[in-house]
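Priority: medium. Attachment 1 of 2:
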């Protein structure tokens, strides 16, 4: 990579960091997962146990500990805040952009790598995920680095490259389980089969590589299994392991086409270029780069579509290699190569207009349906980012059709980046005002006295109540259970939705402490006893 290319690569990484870290510490964490993982990290410090994770005072076996270790370390050094809790996810997203650049360079050329980093940095779903205090971007960065090691090993035949694959696959496994190895391995196996390159596996240092993977990725599982026995093995290998693929975990189901609309929206604005890129790469299947891109994207989508448990963030690994595929097409357009015809660019420009129109209609319909009272306030706040995005998209489409493709790429990236910064500056504070649970939890924390208890009644979102109150919460789901729990001696905070309040019988008098966004906090004084 020459000096000019290094400058452009540094500029892309700097832009990705700005988009990720701008106002990252503003506001509160989102329920469920952000506050859940933050609470697990905090209880790690409280219990002094870095091996067995805890949530709400009980052992928590849902995920491996690497991400929680990182958050706990940051919290111990700088305290727990929105910024310190989100730091590692944000840093990993920048690392994922860098890993995408490496893959684009290895599979195609340096310019494709730089363009791919820019594409990923302004991909909508990736932007959202990079600012959430969850481990998906950490998993993604390690998986991409593992894939890069495997690709470079195949290209150069060097044992050190293959060993990097095992190291990063181990780190990915310690972040979110064996999927950190399974997905890259499936792609490499399919690639080797397509290229009839199975004899090349003799180049892989299997003994050392598997030992490294086991040491990094599986040692925690072994220790927990030895210490906790079946109490750990059954949920981890059963319910949250195999059960996540063959069964539905925590009611997170979906039809076979579940990920199609998610990818169409999540890859915005680059979804408009997916059809042209797919056709272009299919025609170039003899090229290793095109084959690897298609296999990675196709296998990832098929794997998660076949799994019965589905969540939007599962398909996050699609975006980096899709970015490489789109970037390779743009590189061909910029070179004005004969195999990247102009009609494909014109068609992509038309699809871009259709996509943004559909996006606006979908957002408006979503707000009208779920937030009818706040719709006008939301629509006014959304207007500046919407105008910015429409202007950037229109300019990019015109430049693309007129043949000024470098300007079109810059306009599209700049329009998306400015839109995102507008969302962070104007939309996020409005959304913050709609969060009731941190307000309720902080009111409880301010009024807390030793011996107090917290009861949460039929709450769909709950981890914010634990995290921001700093205390254990008892969950009850029936009116009788709530009445019995509230009648126990001592002062009790009852957190309940307004819609549920009329259907339950509580001790009297109950003192209102906080009410916001349909969530109410009531206090039963210590002196009150039940008949």
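Attachment 2 of 2:
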């Amino acid at each position: 990579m020459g000096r000019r290319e290094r400058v452009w690569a540094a500029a892309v990484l700097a832009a990705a960091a700005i988009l990720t870290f701008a106002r990252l510490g503003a506001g509160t964490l989102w329920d469920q997962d952000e506050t859940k993982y933050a609470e697990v990290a905090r209880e790690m410090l409280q219990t002094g146990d870095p091996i067995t994770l805890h949530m709400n005072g009980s052992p928590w076996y849902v995920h491996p500990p690497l991400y929680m270790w990182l958050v706990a370390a940051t919290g111990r050094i700088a305290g727990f805040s929105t910024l310190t809790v989100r730091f590692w996810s944000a840093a990993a997203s920048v690392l994922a952009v860098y890993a995408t650049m490496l893959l684009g360079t290895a599979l195609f050329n340096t310019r494709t790598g730089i363009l791919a980093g820019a594409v990923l940095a302004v991909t909508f779903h990736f932007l959202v995920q990079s600012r959430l205090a969850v481990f998906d971007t950490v998993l993604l960065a390690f998986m991409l680095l593992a894939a890069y090691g495997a690709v470079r090993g195949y290209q150069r035949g060097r044992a050190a490259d293959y060993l990097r694959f095992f190291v990063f696959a181990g780190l990915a496994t310690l972040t979110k389980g064996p999927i950190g190895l399974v997905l890259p391995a499936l792609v490499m196996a399919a690639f080797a089969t397509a290229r009839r390159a199975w004899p090349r596996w003799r180049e892989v240092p299997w003994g050392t590589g598997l030992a490294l993977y086991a040491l990094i990725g599986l040692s925690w599982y072994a220790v927990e299994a030895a210490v906790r026995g079946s109490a750990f093995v059954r949920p981890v290998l059963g319910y949250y392991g195999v059960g996540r693929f063959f069964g539905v975990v925590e009611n997170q189901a979906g039809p076979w086409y579940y990920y199609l609309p998610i990818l169409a929206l999540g890859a915005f604005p680059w979804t408009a270029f997916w059809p042209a890129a797919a056709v272009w790469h299919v025609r170039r299947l003899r090229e290793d780069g095109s084959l690897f891109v298609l296999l990675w994207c196709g296998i990832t989508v098929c794997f998660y579509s076949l799994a019965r448990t589905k969540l939007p963030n599962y398909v996050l690994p699609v975006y980096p290699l899709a970015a490489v595929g789109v970037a390779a097409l743009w590189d061909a357009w910029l070179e004005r190569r004969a195999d990247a015809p102009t009609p494909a660019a014109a068609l992509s420009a038309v699809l871009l207009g259709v996509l943004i129109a559909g996006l606006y209609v979908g957002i408006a319909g979503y707000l009208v349906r779920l937030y009818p009272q706040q719709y006008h306030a939301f629509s006014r706040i959304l207007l500046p980012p919407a105008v910015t995005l429409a202007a950037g998209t229109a300019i990019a489409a015109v430049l693309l059709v007129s043949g000024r493709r470098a300007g079109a790429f810059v306009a599209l990236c700049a329009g998306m980046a400015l839109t995102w910064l507008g969302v962070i500056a104007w939309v996020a504070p409005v959304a913050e005002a709609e969060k009731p649970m941190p307000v309720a939890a902080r009111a409880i924390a301010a009024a807390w006295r030793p011996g107090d208890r917290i009861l949460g009644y039929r709450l769909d979102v709950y981890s914010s109540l634990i995290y921001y109150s700093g205390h254990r919460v008892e969950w009850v789901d029936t009116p009788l259970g709530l009445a019995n729990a509230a009648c126990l001696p001592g002062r009790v905070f009852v957190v309940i939705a307004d819609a549920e309040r009329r259907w339950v019988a509580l001790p009297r008098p109950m003192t209102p402490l906080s009410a916001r966004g349909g969530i109410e906090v009531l206090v039963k004084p210590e002196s009150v006893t039940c008949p």
